[in-house]
Amino acid sequence: MGDEVTLTGTVEMTVRAEPLFNLVRNYTNALRFLVHEILRDPSKYGRWRYVKKSRRIKWEQDIKKIHEFYETLKHRFNLPPKFAIGCEREASMIAKSVINNENNGENKCAIKSYRARCDYQSYSIKFEGDKCYLRLQGLGEFEVNGFNKKWLDKYKDWKFGDLIMKIQGKVIKLYVTLKKAVEIANPSEKAVAIDMNFSEIVVGNDKTEARFRTPLWRIMHIKKNHIEKTQKKYNKQWLHVKGIRKAISKWWSRINGITNDFVKQVSRRIVLTVKEQGYNTIVLEDLNGLKEEQAKLKKPWRERFTFFAYRKLQDWIEWQAKKEGLAVVYVNPKNSSKTCPKCKSLNTKFENRTLVCKNCGFTLDRDSVAVRNLVNKWLDVLGCAV
What we know:
This protein is of the alpha+beta class and 386 residues long. Helix content is 40%, strand content 27%. The strands form five sheets. The protein has a five-stranded mixed beta sheet with strand order 12-11-10-13-14, with helices on both faces. Strands 1-9-8-4 form a four-stranded antiparallel beta sheet. Helix 7 crosses helix 10.
């Protein structure tokens, strides 16, 4: 096996308890106050230094200086000690990102949602029969809803990380972070590649192949036949009508739900398929520069790229692969679907998504061509190309 990496997973639950509502509101107000104070005079709570790598002058927080607000956070905002310390750390990180953001010249920061964060030492979760309880240091114990017993088996070897509490309507959403150290395999020639297009995802090499359908056309149908039609019907009036805005928001939520469910489920199926077939390396396309290329496309194609969520799918595939002990590598995808995998010639043409090589007469579906060429590019890196 190769290097050890730490995986992070999240479990979502809900709780109804007035003390927690007060805690979350107080924490958010304290966070806003502290971020504002740091941004008002960054030099007082940190230092500026030159970073050679980026050739930029960056601000770096001084935790000791920020810790001077500890008593204020405890007494003015009524925060328990652990939450006050957590608020200091989070405020310093938010301020750092705002100050070092070159596009934010006025150092403005708006914290809109009510949420609180605490580390693994500040809370614990216990199970009694069919019930689940959250215990917060200094606040007591609260019954949790929406707990799924499957999580006990899925995350039984995982350690608890940070807990995020977020007010959503009349409930508080709990996002429990779990962490686990896993070993991943060293990348090898036992590899398959993944080619993604709008209608399906192709996984394979010159010996094996599997295809998975995507929900892109369903998503585009919802956008064109529900969201766009509603917006055109009411012109710009829909912006000022709460009911119409709410309906459009629901359709967008549905699109996000479809996308998130798809990337989570298909990434798991892909990784298990690769593992069952005896491979230990997954070759993905290096998508750096995709945004710049996407901007040159016509609107319909730009939309398809946006809704397909290439990057999100790759992130989930990599996460699932690490969880199963597989390696993930990235290669430049340039001309991967245009090059003949047999004679390496670019003298090719397409006939209904089928590549025809004018040089040697080789014929194959362009997606199958792409996965073969991606694997070959990885084998070139290893120095064992066929």
